[in-house]
Amino acid sequence: MIDLDAYLARIGYAGPRAPSVETLRALHRAHFTSVPFENLDVVLKRPIRLDPASLQQKIVAERRGGYCFESNALFMHGLLAMGFAATPLAARVLYERSDPALPPRSHMLLMVDLEEGLYLADAAFGGQTPPQPLSLAVGVEQATTHEPYRLRRTEDGELDLQALMAGQWGTLYRFTLHPQLPVDFEHANWFTSTHPDSFFVNNLIAAMPGEGCRYTLFNREFRTRWPDGLVETEAIETAADLASVLQRRFALIFSEPELSRLFR
């Protein structure tokens, strides 16, 4: 279990705690706008631990972020502590993928069972994180505070989450409603954080929502992306530039030796 009061203080949530769709939406927004998506510990070659105590220490006490296995896991523990029926699921990431072969399941998301029905809750999909919970209703375009989203059923009976980006629907990931066990994520987390060919091992990544936009850091480029497809870019030319962007847009502070390693 986690320290629920400390977690809610970390994300700035002081609202009702009774499980409801309104509470879920408010919690999702609070987490989404407070906990940055980032893989900086992977780049620093630090172990990524998924037990509740480690998640509490890193994201709550140290006010860091994390990638899906960390951030969505903490979100799930918070929901469970408040009495929500939350089930962890796994997805194959298809976003911006040109290879037609299906990749392994490397993304964690949540299914939340409420009186109003089943909801997809995902507060940690990097630069395209859904800004709010989505109904698990297939074929329905769902407006959000950022882009519209929808679910599409595949020929094999699985579900594709899609987003309308710059006027075109793009598939983010594919998943089923089959519950996952902690060991499933331990295996995927180990591969994602240590394999030499892993996208997260080879790139520096951070993402946070802005007011009507999305901020992303990808290696030595900081991007501000707007719903109409406009992207503003800023080059990261020094370790000091990196320090400034991390603190200004992601509320992350690192020591000079850490910044030097991250910049390299």
From TrEMBL:
Gene3D superfamilies: Arylamine N-acetyltransferase, Cysteine proteinases. It comes from the Bacteria. InterPro entries: Arylamine_N-AcTrfase, Papain-like_cys_pep_sf. Transmembrane segments: none annotated. Belongs to the arylamine N-acetyltransferase family. This is Arylamine N-acetyltransferase.
